[in-house]
């Protein structure tokens, strides 16, 4: 299985040793192929969506060149079962294309929704399956905005309902520079909701700053941290949720805010960006303190993580040598198919 990497979208998160303000920005392609951590292919080109690949619910997108790469592609319609994808390889993809294979009967997806899906990636040049949730790869998802996934994907996603199966055609480039033409087939499993922790209040130790929540759930610290910082990561439960328990390999979705222990200054917040953050648990896509300390948590929980430099950014980037304090709301945990 290909090694997952962080999403290729203009977002921040505790993934890059240079620190959140210097995290690499990558432009999404005109499909959602890059908008998942599961494929392990990084879209590192600067070519972005120019609007020429816009697609309607019927699927065809000519990209200005008359291309219809999905015309010769057949996708099985049995929801729940691993999709079969049939075409004559190599499939030439000259334009981005997308269509709904099986309409769902759930809630209609709206702009700004964060959705979770189960997916399969197929190499268009060979017909080989690169990754599949049905074969043990992680789940995936995306926040549905034109900026984050491209106009073509946005136009299709905002006509779909939960439970739909869709297929997309597009391009991707691996970390070593190898180009791929890809087909993505996915079943939309759910919309992430609520977008804040919900559960029973826990009893913090009192060692760390008190957290106050805004009306929308966004956290703030009542005072800067005081005293000696811990030398290994400490986790304190603030709210205990009632959902499924997180485990290794989960595709986790969360809101978070981070502060420096040294002066209490805030350096990052998904709440302020208006977009939850997602990653695959235990795959090295985020700092060690996150990867190892968000396990065995019920979805809906809120925790505080106090992470020393050795388990954060070490001696690299803007946060070199800093002990970090995070408040994290665990919004969703999509499990692998095991």
TrEMBL record:
Which catalysed reactions does the entry list for this protein? [protein]-peptidylproline (omega=180) = [protein]-peptidylproline (omega=0)
The keyword Repeat is annotated on this UniProt entry: no
The alphabetical list of record keywords is: Isomerase, Rotamase
Region of interest (Disordered), residue spans: 48-73, 216-237
Chain intervals with Gly residues compositional bias: 60-69
Domain of life (superkingdom): Bacteria
User: Any idea where the PPIase FKBP-type domain is?
Assistant: 249-334
Q: What is its EC number?
A: 5.2.1.8
For the keyword Phosphoprotein, the answer is no
| Pfam families found in the cross-reference section | FKBP_C
User: What terms describe the molecular function in GO for this protein?
Assistant: peptidyl-prolyl cis-trans isomerase activity
Protein name (Swiss-Prot/TrEMBL) = peptidylprolyl isomerase
